[in-house]
Design a protein that fits this description.
This protein is globular. The strands form 4 sheets. A 6-stranded mixed sheet has the order 6-7-8-3-9-10, sandwiched between helices. Strands 16-17-18-13-19-20 form a 6-stranded mixed sheet, sandwiched between helices. It folds into 2 domains: 182 residues, 3-Layer(aba) Sandwich (Rossmann fold), CATH 3.40.50.300; 224 residues, Rossmann fold (3-Layer(aba) Sandwich). The chain has 21 helices and 20 strands. Helix 4 packs parallel to helix 7, helix 7 runs parallel beside helix 8 and helix 15 crosses helix 16. Strand 9 and strand 10 form a beta hairpin. By secondary structure, the protein is an alpha/beta fold.
Length: 534
């Protein structure tokens, strides 16, 4: 069987900003109808590589060659003028960006944005473009496409927005689709749906796909070939089967070894209960449709009748998709939203009064999903980590306060030796993994009994995520900490948790030991979640 013809041949591609190379002599090729994954951590140069092919890397200087086979003949993308590239973009090569909420215009409906591409590229009438947009939306599997075409981006779910981005990218039937982390922000089941959709459309339309990702699990299931990037270089490439079975480069082996590894200390049989929820429900007011909304508001039940206990030294994983109620449940456990039922920390219930609850707040701390947005950019590391001490330990001296901050930072692996002047630094001066360590130190400085971990690794690359998980596992063993782990990542739950609660549409549909629930799921939703994760 003869291989399909080469669609894109990239040779010695270099991309630099202000004289500094970020992509250094990259070579790869994509054949017609092929799926190539470009894999690497943040900062490896994979996204800049893709953007530079379309002249979208602002302020970049490029050299080398990128020969692309258009319908009218081969061209070197790096030699084309801006006007010539406009003819290529969307028509021959299209791109799906990582975060559709920022890539889509919030002021225009989905249908209008897709129709705009069609009118610009295919010179069809406004009415024809509108109908073609609806057809494209239907092709991507969005239900009720005519109605969804009139929706604004914020009115769609994350998966629907990503499908709308794909519909826009496929408007002109491109020969090559550049997909930049198209599933990173999505839940596991929605992620699988998007992968299945891309694979189906790729076969149906005969296009090639360059998938940019750091998710090796995704690559294994989706791509034909893989190219691994590290610090601007492609260090290894080949078929997915060959590279995953026998990786040749050190960095590839590190990426493959960075998948979460289970390391859980057995729970003591007499371990006391540190957090207990009984019959907890949370609902929110919502506008009622029609004229009734003028006079009264309805209620949306985000969490319904959830019960669980968390013991000292235990990790309880709460897993589910976006909208399942798991984060709302965490807020109830923290006493941060009104709830029905009982929530007790060490046998004491939240009162809803700040002064009365201050003792409980010291016992229960939280680490949020995105440390860059949860850490104030205006505060130094010393101020950030030590802020809780001002509230809970006002009587300590400045020297004692600073020492406790330094000790907390050392616990998470941040020291003055590694980071000179660390106490005077700001969050933006640290990497993503280091910022997450700062967030953990900020929680640990108060010596809590319980940490609520809200998606603690979802914003991190695989190697950084593995480092943070190992840190949390070690802290639990050395300090006897209890974790309430909120996540949609089944692999993280398997690595960290003793027990699991599966949330679906506000209800706990299944709960039990990890070994029991994940080996023999009883609820169809649990089985679906596990199937999408493996």
């Amino acid at each position: 069987m003869n291989p399909s013809p080469v669609l894109l041949q990239v040779e010695q591609l270099r991309v630099s900003f202000d004289g500094k190379d970020v992509v250094q002599g990259v070579d790869f090729m994509i054949r017609t109808g092929e799926k190539l994954a470009l894999v690497g951590e943040s900062g490896s140069g994979k996204t800049i590589t893709a953007l530079s092919l379309l002249g979208l890397a602002q302020g970049a200087r490029t050299s080398g060659a990128a020969h692309f086979a258009t319908a009218s003949g081969a061209v070197d993308l790096l030699e084309l003028s801006e006007q010539q590239l406009r003819g290529i973009r969307g028509q021959d090569i299209a791109m799906v960006f990582q975060e559709p909420m920022t890539a889509l215009n919030p002021l225009f409906t989905i249908g209008e944005q897709i129709a705009e591409v069609l009118q610009e590229k295919q010179a069809v009438s406004r009415a024809e473009a509108a109908q073609m947009a609806i057809n494209l939306i239907a092709d991507t599997g969005i239900d009720d496409p005519a109605r969804r075409a009139g929706a604004y981006p914020h009115q769609l779910s994350g998966g629907q927005r990503q499908r709308a981005m794909i519909a826009m990218a496929l408007a002109c039937s491109p020969r090559l689709l550049l997909a930049d982390e198209p599933t990173t922000a999505l839940d596991v089941s929605v992620r699988q749906q998007i992968l299945d959709l891309l694979a189906e459309l790729q076969v149906r339309k005969g296009m090639a796909i360059l998938l940019i990702t750091h998710d090796l699990h995704l690559v294994r299931r989706f791509a034909d070939r893989v190219a691994v990037m590290e610090r601007g270089h492609i260090v290894e490439q080949g078929s997915v089967g060959e590279v995953f079975a026998a990786p040749q480069h050190r960095y590839t082996r590190e990426l493959l070894d960075s998948l979460p590894v289970r390391d859980v200390a057995p729970l003591l049989p007499d371990a006391p209960v540190v957090l207990e929820l009984a019959g907890v429900g949370v609902d929110y007011p919502v506008a009622r449709p029609g004229w009734r909304g003028w006079f009264s508001r309805g209620r949306f039940a985000a969490v319904q009748q959830v019960d669980f206990q968390l013991r000292r030294g235990e990790t309880l994983g709460v897993v589910g998709e976006s909208g399942s109620g798991k984060s709302t449940l965490a807020l109830a456990a923290l006493g941060l939203v009104p709830y029905a039922g009982d929530v007790k920390v060490g046998g004491v219930a939240w009162t809803g009064r700040s002064r009365a609850d201050v003792i409980l707040r010291k016992k229960v701390q939280v680490v949020f999903q995105d440390p860059f947005s949860s850490l104030s950019p205006r505060l130094t590391v010393e101020e950030l980590v030590g802020e809780g001490l001002d509230v809970h330990c006002p009587g300590i001296s400045r020297e004692q306060r600073q020492q406790r901050v330094v000790d907390a930072l050392a616990t998470v692996g941040i020291t003055e030796t590694q980071f000179p002047g660390m106490l005077e630094r700001y969050p933006h001066q640290f990497s993503g993994g280091q910022r997450q360590r700062l967030a953990i130190a900020r929680a640990l400085v108060l010596e809590p009994e319980v940490l609520v971990l809200d998606e603690p690794t979802s914003a991190l690359d695989v190697t950084l995520a593995q480092q943070v998980l190992r840190l949390l596992q070690g802290l639990q063993k050395s300090r006897g900490l209890s974790y309430l782990l909120i996540t949609h990542d089944v692999a993280v739950v398997e690595a960290m948790a003793h027990r699991v609660v599966v949330m679906h549409q506000g209800r706990a549909v299944e709960a039990g030991l990890i070994s029991d629930v994940f080996s023999a799921p009883q609820h169809p939703y649990t089985a679906k979640l596990l199937a999408a994760s493996r």
